[in-house]
Amino acid sequence: PSVPRHTNRLINEKSPYLLQHAHNPVDWYPWGQEAFDRAKKENKLIFLSVGYSTCHWCHVMEEESFKNKEIGEIMNKNFVCIKVDREERPDVDKVYMTFVQATSGGGGWPMSVWLTPDLKPFVGGTYFPPEDGIHRVGFRTVLLRIAEQWKENRDVLLENSQKILEALLHRSEIRVRGQESPPPSKEVMATCFQQLSNSYDEDYGGFSESPKFPTPVNLNFLFTYWALNRTTPEGARALQMALHTLKMMVHGGIHDHIGQGFHRYSTDQHWHVPHFEKMLYDQGQLAATYSRAFQISGDKLFSDVAQDILLYVSRDLSDQAGGFYSAEDADSYPTTTSGEKREGAFCVWTAEEIRALLPDPVEGAAEGTTLGDVFMHHYGVKETGNVSPMKDPHQELKGKNVLIVRCSPELTAAWFGLDPGRLGALLQEGRRRLSAARAQRPRPHLDTKMLAAWNGLMISGFAQAGVALAEQGYVRRAAQAAAFLRRHLFDPASGRLLRSCYQGKDNAVEQSTVPIQGFLEDYVFVIQALFDLYEASLEQTWLEWALQLQHMQDKLFWDPKDFAYFSSEAGDSSLLLRLKDDQDGAEPTANSVTVTNLLRAACYSGHMEWVEKAGQILAAFSERLQKIPITLPEMARATAVFHRTLKQVIICGDPQREDTKEMLRCVHSVFSPNKVLMLADGDSTGFLYRQLPFLASLERKDGKATAYLCSNFTCSLPITSPQELRGMLCP
Asked: Which residue spans traverse the membrane (predicted)?
């Protein structure tokens, strides 16, 4: 590569997204005191640009505007320009995204916001084209207009920014009104189910026309709703909606049939043409959701998909030290000689390429039928490409095919007169060859930043799959990642989590000069992961660490006045608002997950004030839970767990003995949303026995592994038969 003409101070950062902009002609600063001081000293406005390294439109805006020398000059002359990686600093992103959504009715990335020197926003948007068009004002024009306004009407701008801030503070308050108690779970669950049912796509699954996101939070809600209403028609419909959606996603183009894993979302109703980036948080949540679907239905399709996702993550998103990388980009060079990246280039195919790779005649089919014919029929490949021009505004996919399963294996086999058993082997061979061909293409950019929160979601994915699929290798991989977190994203001296670390030179794990402290979501997703890992491995050290982190989370983020947890800690003067998120989206919001975490923590420790906190969070969100629970399906699910009280499933036995293993297998094979598993191994000096003295009174009946179902520390009669235990877990 040629020597870059420009280098700005982002060259000293660790974030792959910031480093992508280190050679722009823009005088970028990272978020921090140096930039704020300069804006104040020179009385300049701040231009804040927020994105992430696998964001397609972020790349477009960089190519068009931030690499443009003239636009760079306008930016440098009039503004102090700051670049933020939203995955490193979700706190900064949330504050200004709240503003952009409130003032423009929409949001997204790249986010472009203009701030006064004291960081108050007054104008914002998302992507701007470089020049004026018929429908949109260009970025150059916006920059010049805002600079002019600052010269001419400074006082008005400052006054407006103050009013905007006050309105935002008012809008973003979530608090308990009066003596509210947690909302009744029956009504919340019923309303959430009804709202999901009304927005459900009967044909293709999912809960919107387009774009369609996987949103595992909706599916997990439906599984819990089914488990608590198994015998009702609504319960049956909830399960059908969840399983149908999961099947349609597997068959669609959102699922990478050749390279495994799932893309971020589908641009159409049929799950066909995706935005091709792959995010770690999706893989973690979907691995857990597909494992649950297998646990409930016994359908091998779902366990195969869970394994497919974990294969992708183990191979492509894993650091050798044990952590997980954040994401893979959507854009890549079509060939090694291409000068320009295209979206989806790594994943799409022409009919001609497939014919050339799969020319073999197929025995038993009509004369002249090739493996290519069978493969193309099954995966909906067309000679002219199978992507509608409507879904391809930049014509990047013209003549290309995104593989999508168009018919069942039985139908494809019948069409060619083949034995269905044989078809599987033919399609597998086709996928293997396409995979080998794809390995020759230039790979998309890999974001090797490692985030505590997303690593937490992925550890849960491995741990839950390990349990549901009875696969110890997955549990070991989860434990390896948890040990990585403890080594690289935890400060034992302060007892606090860190947000991020990075793959550095020679594959060493590096930390930024000033490490970013963990946010609420880092604590919540890591604590959830440690509970999941304890249930899968029964190693008490994970439990002990989880409870320590829960105490730290309470100390740093709890709002004693209005209840629930703030997303970020107090004391950062550069943050205008301390927010509480109130929406479960592509990832669940931290307050939703923490309700179940607190209930689990209380079961493992006997600290009943955690149950009280869980109730206070539900009370703080009560109005939203009763009116529009569809925006908080994970918290709605937690409402049911709260009101039904978690069942402590305690197995007394030696973990090495077969009878204990059989009891554990029985517990693991059942989907029961309100159970907490613990092993009482008889070691009275161990962590659990110290936390829960009542364990000492539980005995092994006739020397056999014995189960007890306890609620509020009152236990059932001893159970020694796995069949009887299963019956009690599935009421």
From this structure: none
Distance, in Å, from the CA atom of 216 to the CA atom of 584, rounded to the nearest integer, reads 10
Could you give phi then psi for residue 519, rounded to 5 degrees? Answer: -100, 175
Q: Which two tokens stand for residue 651?
A: 């197995």
Size (the chain), residues = 731
The answer to whether residue 325 is domain-embedded is no
Distances 451 to 49, 285, 447, 454, 627 between C-alpha atoms, Å: 21, 15, 11, 6, 34
Low-confidence ranges of the chain (pLDDT < 70): 1-2, 176-179, 731
Count of Cβ atoms closer than 10 Å to residue 617 Cβ: 26
596 sits in which H/E element: helix 590-605
Say whether both 216 and 311 belong to one domain: yes
Give the span between the Cα atoms of 326 and 140, in whole angstroms: 33
149-156 LR contacts (CB < 8 Å, sep 24+): 150/45, 150/78
Instruction: Give the Cα separation of 177 and 536 in Å (integer).
Output: 40
Distance CA(564)–CA(455), nearest Å, equals 24
Establish how many alpha carbons lie within 13 A of residue 93's alpha carbon, considering only the half-sphere containing its beta carbon: 20
Q: Are strands 79-85 and 28-30 parallel, antiparallel or unpaired?
A: parallel
Q: Are residues 87 and 129 in the same domain?
A: yes
Confidence (pLDDT) at 731: 67
Tokens of 726: 């299963």
CB contact at 8 A, 587 and 286: no
Best CA proximity match to 460, nearest among 216, 636, 192: 216
Is 291:468 a contact under the CB 8 Å cutoff? Answer: yes
Task: Kindly state whether residue 193 falls inside one of the protein's structural domains.
Answer: no
pLDDT of residue 1: 55
Tens-digit pLDDT profile for residues 99-130? 999 888 789 999 999 999 999 999 999 999 99
Q: Say if residues 674 and 644 touch (Cβ distance below 8 Å).
A: yes
- On whether residue 133 sits in a domain, the answer given is yes
How far apart, in whole angstroms, are the C-alpha atoms of residue 410 and residue 423? 9
Q: Among 668, 681, 680, which Cα is nearest to 729's?
A: 668
Determine the Cα–Cα distance for residues 594 and 565; give it in Å rounded to an integer: 9
Chain CA centroid to CA 280, Å? 6
Q: Beta strand pairing status for 327-328 and 278-279?
A: antiparallel
CA distance 580 to 461: 26
For residue 708, what are the domain limits? 645-730
% of the chain exceeding 90 in pLDDT: 87
Residue 314 shares a structural domain with residue 356:
no
21 shares a domain with 152: yes
Residue of 193, 258, 255, 187 lying closest to 220 (CA atoms): 193
Asked if residue 362 is part of any domain, the answer here is yes
Ramachandran region, residue 323 (left: φ > 0; alpha: ψ -120 to 50; beta: rest): beta
Tell me which H or E stretch contains 114: strand 111-115
pTM, full prediction? 0.96
Count the domains in the chain. Answer: 4
CA distance 214 to 194: 19
Q: Please indicate, yes or no, whether residues 311 and 405 belong to a single structural domain of this protein.
A: no
